[in-house]
Design a protein that fits this description.
Layout: H1 3-6, E1 13-15, H2 25-33, E2 38-41, H3 47-58, E3 65-70, H4 79-88, H5 90-96, H6 111-120, E4 125-129, H7 135-144, E5 147-152, H8 155-164, E6 168-172, E7 178-179, H9 196-204, E8 211-214, H10 220-228, E9 233-236, H11 238-241, H12 250-255, E10 264-267, E11 275-278, H13 281-286, H14 296-310, H15 333-351
Parallel strand pairs: 1-9, 2-3, 3-4, 4-5, 5-6, 6-8, 8-9
Antiparallel strand pairs: 7-11, 10-11
Helix pairs in contact: 2-3, 3-6, 6-7, 10-15
Length: 357
């Protein structure tokens, strides 16, 4: 690993920040305690809610951890398209007996307030998704002693992040579960994207920053493949989602290996931004009609998704999952880190028997 990452974790294993409740302090702390790098997800939380979780994880571990922030989104959204989608969801409103939410609840996710807290009371790592922060923001964290990670999905995004002053890149392949962290949400590119191993190679050709690879990784052997392709560490989300420390809904955890959910797909149905999840009824019925309107659609459908979960109906929930979801293993997060490390070592020895001598 690069020196930046070796200062943060013993093993090249990062737990992905999963917004929506999965990345609880208990999960992040368990991963960090086991020698990986745990992450809190500040997305959709208030600034104070984020800070309370930071204080909580500090009480659980003295090891480094990270906090992930969502970048503010542009306001160029077609309100007429949102209204059309509102009508499309009328049947869901009746079925779950739950009104739709206010699409204009929060446009910036409390970004500036969260930045202020993390500058005043620094954490070891801050990462960014859905865009690249300004050079001034990245420099302010550098002065505070905080390492910065920027999520990228293309070589051009990687070059932008490097020029802005990021310390590390989180390179996200199309296989990843949850939202694609693209800088610009292009409606014409809903099902485009680059596979992880190819993307690592492309970015290594043009950028010299350390790379954390993410997208569909579930086994230590896959981590080894990502490292061999040029990554310095690997980030896993779906693999940790089913751990007992995860705050994901039980139905979400169960769905990972439920044969009823045979595959994943990319959709805007739940949030208005391209994200990968298990194909269910809601995705099939509404995905083709969902506009490129994030976070407006997210807030529009939030209460419907909560009602579906309360009713025990996984067909109405956003079941975010990477392509490797069927490989999920339910075990404590610290044990999973140990298993992944052992698998990684086995893969290295199989590739180079001299390492075992």
């Amino acid at each position: 690993m690069s020196s930046v990452l070796t200062d943060l974790c013993r093993y090249p294993i990062v737990q992905a920040p999963m917004a929506g409740g999965a990345s609880r302090p208990q999960l992040a702390a368990a991963v960090s305690e086991a020698g990986g790098l745990g992450f809190l997800a500040a997305g959709y939380k208030t600034a104070d809610g984020m800070y309370q979780e930071v204080k909580q994880i500090r009480g659980l571990t003295s090891r480094p951890f990270g906090v992930n922030l969502f970048m503010p989104q542009p306001k160029t959204v077609d309100s007429a398209a949102i209204e059309v989608y509102r009508q499309q969801l009328a049947g869901e409103v009746s079925w779950y007996e739950t009104p739709l939410g206010d699409p204009d609840s929060s446009r910036d996710d409390g970004y500036e307030a969260k930045l202020a807290i993390l500058r005043d009371d620094p954490v070891p790592v801050v990462s960014f998704t859905f865009g690249c922060p300004s050079a001034e923001v990245l420099e302010s964290f550098a002065k505070a002693g905080t390492a910065t990670v920027v999520t990228v999905t293309t070589p051009e995004e990687a070059r932008i992040a490097e020029r802005a002053g990021a310390d590390v890149l989180c390179v996200q392949g199309i296989e990843a579960g949850g939202h694609q962290g693209t800088y610009r949400d292009d409606p014409a590119a809903s099902h485009g994207g680059i596979g992880l191993l190819t993307l690592i190679a492309l970015i290594r050709e043009c950028v010299e920053l350390p790379v954390i690879a993410t997208g569909g990784l579930m086994r230590g052997s896959q981590i080894g493949a990502a490292l061999a392709a040029g990554a310095d560490a690997a980030q896993l989300g779906t693999a940790f989602l089913v751990c007992p420390e995860s705050g994901a809904h039980p139905l979400h955890k169960q769905a990972m290996t439920n044969p009823l959910f045979a595959r994943t797909d990319l959709t805007r149905a739940f949030t208005g931004r391209v994200a990968r999840g298990l194909v269910n009824r809601f995705m099939r019925e509404h995905g083709p009609y969902a506009p490129a309107a994030y976070p407006q659609v997210h807030y529009l459908t939030t209460d419907l998704r909560k009602a579906a979960a309360k009713a025990g109906d996984a067909q109405g929930m956003a079941l975010w999952a990477g392509q490797g979801h069927r490989l999920a293993r339910e075990m404590p997060a610290g044990q999973l880190v140990e298993v992944l490390v052992a698998e990684l070592e086995s893969a290295r020895i199989a590739h180079d028997p001299e390492e075992s001598r």
